[in-house]
Amino acid sequence: MRFLKAFLLAVLLFPVELATHEVMHLAVYSALGVRASLVVTSWHLGTLGTPIFGLHAAPADPAAVSLRVLLINNGTGPLLAALLLGVLWAAIDRRSRVARAALLANLCALLFFSGIELAYPLLEEVGHVDADVLLLPELNYGSVLLIMLVTTAAATWPRSGGFRLTPSGRRWFGVGARQT
Which of 36, 87, 143, 169 has the fewest CB atoms within 10 Å distance of its CB? Predict the structure, then answer.
């Protein structure tokens, strides 16, 4: 039951994570002197054509944005959002496994976005590879759902009193191990 609560909370937090991520893109663009705005995008999922919506920080003049600025923005935007959520994650009591698992899942999603957003211009501009597959909503949102499933499952997995790796790096096998 803890896993289901954590997963659903992670999914509910995703729009907050996405909005924070895109606002951080706007902040980075602004710091670099690039005018940009937040755009609501409409994607169509798969063969069903089901519309879903997303957010995107778009420069006013994309042609005027250098590769260097694009790479700084694409990598830094999600990482700044991760920093903010990381502070919140660290402030939450360690006994609140559901909330911490949901935030951790969103932190992992932000790391995924940082990686994929850096990969796209590098593949396109430097590697001369058509990387449009990285823009597919199935890949973006599908990967995030998978990340959230795996992260919340791992973070809420029942802990046994047996094997434990302590902060000092020693292994405990049940005898004398602290229970959490």
Answer: 169
For residue 85, the number of C-alpha atoms closer than 13 Å in the C-beta half-sphere is 30
Q: Which long-range contacts (CB under 8 A, 24 or more apart) does 42-49 make?
A: 43/137, 44/137, 45/137, 45/138, 46/138
**Long-range contacts: 17-23, Cβ < 8 Å, 24+?**
17/81, 17/85, 17/106, 17/109, 17/110, 18/54, 18/55, 19/55, 20/81, 20/84, 20/85, 21/77, 21/78, 21/81, 21/110, 21/113, 22/55, 22/56, 22/57, 22/77, 23/57, 23/81
**Tell me: the pLDDT tens digits for 56-109?**
899 999 888 999 999 999 999 999 999 999 999 999 988 899 999 999 999 999
Label the pairing between strands 171-173 and 163-165: antiparallel
pLDDT digits (tens, 9 = 90+) for 105-138: 999 999 999 999 999 999 999 999 998 888 888 8
- pLDDT bin (cut points 50, 70, 90) of residue 10 is very high
What's the Cα-to-Cα distance from 64 to each of 8, 70, 119, 173, rounded to whole Å?
Answer: 41, 10, 20, 60
DSSP label at residue 58: E
- Cα 54 to Cα 133: distance, rounded to the nearest angstrom: 17
pTM for this predicted structure: 0.81
